[in-house]
Amino acid sequence: MAHRLAERLGRADVDAMLAEMSAPQFEKWLAYMALEPRAEDMLPWLFASVCRAIWNVQIAKGTKKGEEPKLRELHDFVLLFGDMPDPREAAAAKAIERRVPAAETFSRVVDTFEALGMKVVKDHRPAPDPEVVKRALEKPKKKTKD
Q1: What is the pLDDT of residues 42-66, one digit of tens each?
Q2: d(CA 2, CA 4)
Q3: Residues 17, 21, 27, 28, Cα dihedral to 10°
Q4: What is the number of structural domains in the chain?
């Protein structure tokens, strides 16, 4: 991954780039690169979207009234090069991999703001009145018929 980062940053000397960068900075770059694919990695998907649009328009045009057109999914048109994974398997794996607990996501956002020098402000909503909370939590009294 260091070589890909060097390529993105326009650096020829990978070792010098790594020497200038702290481990947390490198980890943040890796996280960013996992979320934002290179344009070259997206080309098969771009071409697939064009092919899918043409295919689906032609199929829809040729479908008889009352029939459901046999439209295709985007991954049906992705051309696999070299050792590219099957897009259906890769998409499912990434979806599972990207699931992050909400508390961890919030913590990451706060860390990012602090790293950018922004002051993290605490919640400004007024605290609820303890008496109101206590009454709300009490069990409701059963109504008796007179």
Answers
A1: 788 888 889 888 888 888 787 788 8
A2: 5
A3: -100
A4: 1
